[in-house]
Design a protein that fits this description.
By secondary structure, this protein is α/β, with parallel strands linked by helices. The protein folds into two domains: 2-218, 3-Layer(aba) Sandwich (Rossmann fold); 221-297, no CATH class. It has ten helices and 14 strands. Bound molecules: adenosine-5'-diphosphate. Adenosine-5'-diphosphate is lined by residues 11, 13, 15, 17, 34, 36-42.
Length: 300
């Protein structure tokens, strides 16, 4: 269990990037969902001991992360957002090199671990190829392989699916989901489906604050019978947006289709639809922007 309490971080430029964040993160895959600039990377970097918070606490299975950085680092696997590789080196050589840095000094153990990870990430066939020839998805899988060196108990991956095509994204997410039940895996993302498909628990953050945390399905169920859909003309869209609590707008065959949050049918022509996590996300973001309280805030 990773336990974060009342964490704050304000940068020198005055941005309050982490604003009184408290999160309880159990073993398994945990989705941290938020738009660009929400504070996800700031939070990830703080948990990974790469920067200090101003105040608040982080404990990992009882370990005081802020005081005992070295102990945390020994149990940590981290895939940063801007993970770079040496383009001319092969995956096998670089992973072996990282393994040495990680303290895996016994050659036989190291060989076994490197081979195991290359197989697990489906890079075994391509292990001799220079990393510069890898696709985006392969590079991210290599990033996960290096993060898993030394069998970490806490794995942090920061926006790993951005820029991956749907196939590669799926493969990557499945890999994360398989990492293990005895490990905390935090996946930060701005893509709602990353969380819907695989995360048993999640938190949404906006402007440095936790908007909601818990099981995705519980958050979705709280919107049952309250999401209504209608196709409207482009000309009428602005009016609907001003009159109703419009969550998502999609273009379907060139025509805007809107989801509206409302206790009752908002207007003629609206049909009730099953809510999904995207509705929760837009409702939370809107509520945080307008500072209005929404019923979904009550989800534990
Ligand atoms: P996310 O990962 O969700 O996109 P970030 O944590 O990168 O969000 O950024 C949160 C806010 O903090 C943004 O407004 C960003 O501009 C600001 N920020 C991030 N890192 C720094 C930094 N080192 N110095 C100053 N401001 C920063």
């Amino acid at each position: 269990m990773l336990s974060i309490k009342q964490l704050n971080k304000t940068y020198a430029n005055g941005v309050h990037a982490i604003n009184n964040v408290s999160l309880e993160i159990p073993n398994g895959l945990f989705g941290l969902l938020g738009p660009n600039g929400a504070g996800k990377s700031s939070l990830m970097r703080t948990i990974a001991t790469l920067q200090e918070p101003d105040n608040g606490s982080i404990h990992f299975h009882g370990l005081d992360v802020i005081k005992e950085k070295e102990s945390l680092r020994r149990q940590l696997g981290y895939l940063p957002q801007d993970f770079g590789v040496y383009p001319k080196v092969s995956a096998e050589d670089l992973l072996n090199h990282f393994a040495v840095l990680k303290g895996l000094t016994k050659k036989s153990e190291r060989k076994e671990m490197v081979e195991g990870l290359l197989r697990q990430t489906n890079l075994w066939e391509a292990r001799k190829r220079a990393l510069g020839t890898y696709s985006g998805g392969m590079r991210q899988r290599f990033g996960i392989a290096q993060a898993l060196l030394g069998a970490p108990k806490l794995v942090i991956v920061d926006e790993p699916t951005a820029g991956l095509d749907p196939d590669e994204r799926n493969r990557f997410l499945n890999l994360l989901a398989e990492i293990g039940e005895q490990v905390v895996v935090i996946l930060s993302t701005h893509i709602v489906e990353d969380v819907t498909d695989l995360c048993p628990r999640m938190a949404m953050i906006g402007k440095g604050q936790v908007l909601v945390q818990g099981e995705p399905q519980v958050a979705i169920d709280a919107l049952k019978n309250k999401v209504w859909r209608k196709s409207v003309s482009k000309a009428a869209l602005a009016e609907y947006q001003s009159r109703f609590n419009v969550l998502a707008t999609r273009l379907v065959a060139g025509k805007p289709q809107i989801n509206v949050f409302s206790d009752e049918q908002p207007d003629d022509g609206f049909i009730m639809v099953e809510p999904d996590l995207e509705d929760v996300y837009f409702l939370q973001l809107r509520a945080s922007q307008t500072k209005a309280q929404s019923p979904a805030n009550a989800i534990a």
